[in-house]
Amino acid sequence: ISDLNRTWEGDNYVLFQQGGRLILKNLSNLFLGKPIMKTCEFITPELPEPEHFTGSLDSLKDLLKLLTIRANTLIHETGARLQMSKDKVEEWDKSLAYYTYPMTHAYFQRFVT
Predict the structure, then answer these.
(1) By C-alpha distance, which of 73, 71, 78 is closest to 25?
(2) Contact present, 100 and 17 (Cβ < 8 Å)
(3) Category of 33 on φ-ψ map: left (φ > 0), alpha (ψ -120 to 50) or beta
(4) Taking the model in full, what pTM does it have?
(5) Does residue 23 contact residue 103 with C-beta atoms inside 8 Å?
């Protein structure tokens, strides 16, 4: 079966973990006042407040705003979860499916939009 979203022998999982680590490193750099990658400049220092969407899904600008809020929220939630954990390695492993992969996927969705 051929699938463009699948790579050989679970490489996607490795790529998502590497992407997630890079995103969280940029979040850390933002807090430390260090330079961050151009593709991470949308990340805010604060968790975005939920807001009622009044835009149009037909508008690329409005869609980008939604994807930015989603990515920012997932990045901050994942970062906070790891930051508050005593055992970072165990928490990283436990959070991969429910936090890291969705965060990385949201980042890439926002980036390609």
Answers:
(1) 78
(2) yes
(3) left
(4) 0.85
(5) yes
